[in-house]
Write a structure and sequence with these properties.
homotrimer, alpha+beta, three-stranded antiparallel β-sheet, elongated, disordered N terminus
Chain lengths: 167, 167, 167
């Protein structure tokens, strides 16, 4: 990367300013990761991973870069939400309307399974979020939490990878 | 990374070729970021951030790597869309059907709030997209735009982080 | 990144342990990419890209880092799913209920087009997933596959970028 001091300017519509800019340093970028093992109840349980991801950042001493939180299962999703009981219940309620547990699921018929709804909900939500890290802190908003939602219809043990890339 | 000249081959189903490959260089990978401050109207306003993200790439002189566009609020989402008035209205219309503003929202009841629908829509859409950068350009398609959608029910000032990692 | 040996600890609720930790090495982080060209049938075809992405990782000799799979079109999405015929049909079925092809689409009316539903579905699913790579392997679960879903209403040729950042 060259010319690193000339950060992108511009005054497009809706833009009112920039709060902070990174001062590039000479520290090398490194890859580092941690795996979390979660015991979940399933049925849409929402598990707040923000503090655990921040501890991985702290432990690595990373200052600036990316933190990807990825769940390695096809019946869980990762997103951000305020993570209070109301928001969590509301997210599950609209997903129950969109992909109801008791609907006919071709996955269940073909595989003698019971969690077709969980597969559909997880594919919609997606398995990961990538959050910038600046000055050693995840840049989530005040009430914005990184969460894993386990849609499966039974308690499970889950693996979440917290992957860091930064200096 | 070793053996960087041997890019992945393969001829799986549906694959007809590769358009371009990166020639690895000796430039070091660096982390760099910019924060955008947006004045939004809320109510599903769709704000095109593509040019602003490209200006951050240009300003940093980044050639190849990743650009993550992340909104640091739990009632906004980031995705890609063609970003013409029809597509933007359609996206909001189906989200109004899925998560209608006037539905009963447990978030509103518990917190004496009015934006429960915004939380649900934002959690579904997700807070970020990560777009590869090649030869100094975001690899978005011709009509594909990186957008922030503000679902809140009032005008707000929003922070978007454009985080680069690349050489 | 300093203090890389002190990985984040903690004993938050639901946490039962960590399976593996990265041992930081002195190999430099590099950016490398490959572009895949796909011939798709459209209409919700689900194309498994996991093996092709793994081949890009293998060819680059990357050990630890991030792999972003990004589709450069506004009528396709990328997510993870079990990718058996039942799950794939179920995902398309709930998207047909949420964003039916024969609904009134403002995109179609404004542009004399026919794929308004494809734009809405793609914006909801999102254009990319970012998957950690550890010890040279994508960290997807046993039945979790990285897929591109082409929602357009006709066969198309599609560009997917597999972007690596790691050591």
């Amino acid at each position: 990367m060259v010319g690193a001091g000339r950060l992108g300017g511009g005054d497009g519509p809706g833009r009112v300013g920039r709060a902070r800019q990174t001062t590039p340093t000479l520290r090398p970028v490194r890859a580092q990761a941690d795996e979390l093992s979660l015991s979940t109840r399933g049925d849409g349980e929402v598990i707040d991973l923000t503090e655990r991801a921040q501890r991985v950042v702290d432990g690595a001493g990373m200052r600036d870069g990316l933190c990807t939180v990825f769940v390695a299962h096809s019946t869980c999703g990762v997103t951000t939400i305020e993570c209070e009981p109301g928001c969590n219940a509301d997210l599950n309620a609209i997903l129950e309307e969109l992909a109801p547990r008791d609907r006919r699921w071709e996955h269940n018929e073909r595989n003698a399974d019971t969690n077709g709804h969980a597969h559909a909900r997880a594919a919609l939500l997606g398995p990961s979020v990538t959050v910038p890290v600046r000055d050693g802190r995840l840049t989530v908003g005040t009430w914005q939490r990184i969460v894993c939602v386990d849609f499966d219809d039974r308690p499970r043990t889950r693996t979440v990878v917290v992957q860091l890339l930064g200096d």
